[in-house]
Amino acid sequence: MTASPDEIIACFTALRIPKTHATVGVSNVIAANKRFYSLFANRRLPDHGWTDVQIQQLLFLLSTLDTNNKLPTCCSSNDSSDTRWTGVGEREGRVYSSLVSQRHYGFAHGMGRSGDITEPQPKAVGSSVLVKLTLLLTLDAMRRGSGLNAKTAAAHGILLPLCTGMSMSLVLSSFRDEEKLQRNIVLWSRIDQKSCFKAIQSAGMTCIVVPTVLDGDQVVTDLVTMERMLEDNAGKVLAVITTTSCFAPRIPDKVDHVAQLCASQGVYHIINNAYGLQCAKTCKLINRACVLGKVDAIVSSTDKNFLVPVGGSIVTSPSDSIIQNIGKLYAGRASSSPVIDLFITLLSMGLKGYERLLKERNELAQAFPARLQAVADRHGERLLLCTDHNTISFGITLDKLARPRNPDENENDYLKAVSKDISTFGAMLFSRCVSGTRVVPRGETKRIGTIEFKGFGSSTDNYPHAYMTAAVAIGVRPAELDEFLIRLDKAFRQYQKRLR
Question: Fewer beta carbons within 10 angstroms: which end of the chain, N or C?
């Protein structure tokens, strides 16, 4: 039973609340309802972020639509006289701890059903609405905020409670059907991050690593070798995986050219765009790839792009059928915890808040290379010239940290000997409470599965410099970058004292 505003005001005045006071309170309720209606009707980010109270109000309202929240709040209670629903299934959203229930705002049914992670649940209307609405808000942020094209790169999407690596594994598995069972090879443009390689292994496929080439300081896509490998393995290649967010000196793959190769060879193309949504140049490159050739799936991290805890990703595609196949392949229901985090965060930001974060990051990234170069100059090092194409990760050489090579010492023994010394520099930074930097000595070798990677960390076999990187990522504060440069300078001085 519902009451009109006048009836509610009458109830308040009966309690001797002045009518003028009651009118103010009821107007707040009416405004909140209009806000909720606007969100559902427009299905896009509000321009301005909501307050915590407004967000919680909506969360609790949605959670009351789930059947588990018609039960007594404490599972140990034997009083069921006020219970509307009687649950006799093996999963009824029962949560013993009230603290856990509060942490999840009463959402306990997760997302999806056993046959499809995107399918609504009869017992969990509120949870289902939350998942659908969060997807639409995320796509809106990617389109109007990051700049991905609404008709191609961000036309369709699915939220997954998985990291980017496992999401790519699921995408690869969804590409397989009876006609393509003989296609078991994935060409992977080398990027020295273990998760992508493991994603291919987890999908039960064979990875062929496409080497990179040097272009000055930059490590870039080897298009000639990729085209040759596609031709040499014609009829056997299922997909090509490229990367658009990476550590310097690696720069984003030439995904527009790779998209053309994939279209000509009829193979799938996955773009690992882990933290690329925060970079306008990267999003323009992806849009171009979708127009010029074949892009089937773009995998982006929610935590790296939207400042939420680790555990979620969004996969977008120009093709709705590809997104549907991914959802149908997911085994069982899934946790909705990453989706709740994302929903809260997006409403808290609003479009203006997200755009402000992107603008602030871009402004910091434009100024940072010169400041990093200044510190490097003081210690005989230099900036790696990758900043035109990689506007998130920046690197400087660490060549002066290594002792001179002895006349009778071969290069492999020398690199192995100085590798530990250079790695010590990274430990010194960490001991100064600096996190996130990567220190990469020359000549490192690492075996992952059956494949040995020479020069591991630099994404190429023989990078000519030892170096370190630092990222200007979304959410970083100017004071953090200021303090990092001070501590980096001190670490250089401390290291040089040790050499004397």
Answer: N
